[in-house]
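For the sake of clarity, the format in which proteins appear in this thesis is described at this point. The record quoted next illustrates the convention:

___
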Amino acid sequence: MYVPNFKQLFILLFVALFFISCGTSRKVSQKTETHKTGTKSTNKKKESIIKYAKTFKGTRYQFGGTTKKGMDCSGLVFVAFKKENISLPRVSRDMATRGKSISLSKTTKGDLLFFKTNKNKKNINHVGLVIEKKGSDILFIHSTSSRGVIISSLNEKYWKNAFVSVRRIL
């Protein structure tokens, strides 16, 4: 019977973690700022967050990454909101407990979309930032393990099927 050595087990574990979640387990302050929606100040913050997130477009995926060298999905949202001094948890499943739950039909720029991309798990493991709404089409920026930081449509079959909820932080 074949028994893998420690190095092989370590590599297998790392690869498995890479595909299971785009979050990381780093502890971060649970404080979340809340803002009155619809104000000029809030709209400016949303635009600033989106603009900053877009600067990472094309950045390669890196589990636990928060820089131009590499970025995961929750890292992208974390640093974009942090730029506006808004603290969010570092992991997508924890982000999904912040802000206010809203219906998909009420989604606007700056809202967060949450997904379950691993059918074997029941936890949220992916997050995207809404950058535009065109009628029924919602565009969001996020980081995928296969393509890095990209803009996708919620109308794409994969994302529509993985979608769980939308939350408003601002």
Summary: The beta strands are 66-67, 70-71, 100-102, 112-115, 126-134, 137-144, 148-153, 163-168. DSSP finds five helices and eight strands in the chain. The helical segments are 6-20, 40-54, 73-82, 92-95, 157-162. Residues 45 and 74 are 19 Å apart (CA to CA).
